[in-house]
Structure formats: structure tokens, C-alpha cells
């Protein structure tokens, strides 16, 4: 079987669970390390001619990360496309099983069992906290309603303040974000690469948690360690400063 993945987290899931079937992946597919497959461009601008030249039996995609016109063009060329939808943690597990079966997995991978066990009783904070979660700056954009990352945080005890917004990724003025005075500002390193020197300075006086986007937004093998890694980062940011 020949598989092309247009989603970084699904690339990792397929590569480690069904070795040898993946023949193409996006430029953003960074895991597993040393993945030796043909690169076919970005998630939003894949090179369709490169994908077709690989002769895939299946292309795996996601309704949020990939553009429908690209997927429609692949179908029109005779390629089967499997499109996932992942808006919360339980749906991630369901969709991962569906993808792996479609890619030829004959057994459930151990990492998927470990991930489900980790999320069955994730380490919550001592009390619920509020957050704003920027995903971009210039302009500032944050998590809004109905997002996988928002559900991840909620299960760890963090309620982000724009969960009820009409948009899934609204643009919010920085002044409004700061004025909301959340308990913590969660700054992932993707899609915008927030770092200690690029992000926290915009929120003076507010605790900031720098987290890996792979743990906050990816649905794949990283789900097994995400509750622990994210929980540690959140607790460290919320810990009262020593006098």
C-alpha cells in the first residue's frame, strides 16, 4: 500500500504504526525524526503533481488543515482521499483508529492504548484556571470555539476565555487580551513560533506557559505524553513566585 499524508500528526501516527506504507508527506511533517519520504509541499499548498506522481492508494487529510479544492482535485484525478475531523480528544482516538485501519494496520498500536490510558485520568491542576491561547501575532489570533487544543486544555483544568466566541480562531486586539487578565497565557510554538523572547513580553504581569504545539495540537503518538508535559508547563507557570 502507498500512502501520502497531508497532516503532520497523522504522518507520525502512520509512520510508526504501519512502517513502510508512507511514501509522501508535507514539508511540515517533522516526526518521526529522519522520515525518508518524498516531500510534497505544505498543508495548504501541496504540489498535486508530486502527489499524483507517487501513485498513492490513499491520501490522508484533515478538514481543518487542508483545503477542500486540493482534496477535490485529487479525487477528480482518481485518488482516494480520507478526510478526518478532530475537534476533541475522544474524536482524535476514533479518527486515529479509522486512519490506521485504512492504512493497513492489522493490530492496534501500543502507543494508542497508552494515549487513551493517559487521557482517561489526566493530571488536573489543583483548581480550574482561565487562559487566553494565542496562535498567531500580527494580527493576534487566539483559540476560539470548538477546537481540539481547547478541549485538551479543558481536560487539564484550563478554561480558555474565548471558547464561546463565534469564530474558531478569532482575531482579538492585544489590549483586549491583556485586559481579560487570565490566570495564564498559553503560548504554543506552532503555528506561530512563540518563544521566551517573542510572546511573553506582550503580556506584562501575566504568567505565560510556553508549550510545544506538538503536545497541544497534534493527535498522534504525542497524545501519550501530552497530559504530563502540558500539565507540568501549566503548573510551573501558575506556581506563585517565591517571595
Taken in chain order, the helices and strands follow as EHEEHEHEHHEEEHEHEEHH
In total, the number of strands is 11
Judging from the principal axes of the Cα atoms, what is the shape?
A: globular
How much beta, percentage-wise?
15-25%
Number of helices: 9
Structural class: alpha/beta
Write the layout of secondary structure elements.
Blueprint: E1 3-5, H1 8-17, E2 22-25, E3 38-39, H2 48-53, E4 58-62, H3 68-76, E5 81-84, H4 89-102, H5 110-120, E6 129-132, E7 134-136, E8 141-142, H6 148-155, E9 158-160, H7 174-179, E10 184-188, E11 208-211, H8 213-217, H9 226-238
Parallel strand pairs: 1-2, 1-4, 2-3, 4-5, 6-9, 6-10, 10-11
Antiparallel strand pairs: 7-8
Question: What is this entry, summarized?
Answer:
This protein has 243 residues and is of the alpha/beta class. 34% of the residues lie in helices and 16% in strands.
Keywords:
243 residues, 4-stranded parallel sheet, single chain, 9 helices, globular, 5-stranded parallel sheet
Molecular structure report:
This protein is of the alpha/beta class and about 240 residues long. It is about 35% helix and about 15% strand. The chain is built from nine helices and eleven strands. The chain has helices spanning about 10-15, 50-55, 70-75, 90-100, 110-120, 150-155, 175-180, 215, 225-240, and strands at about 5, 20-25, 40, 60, 80-85, 130, 135, 140, 160, 185-190, 210. The strands form three sheets. It has a five-stranded parallel beta sheet with strand order 3-2-1-4-5, with helices on both faces. The chain has a four-stranded parallel beta sheet with strand order 9-6-10-11. A two-stranded antiparallel ribbon has the order 7-8. The radius of gyration is 19 Å and the shape is globular. The mean pLDDT is about 95.
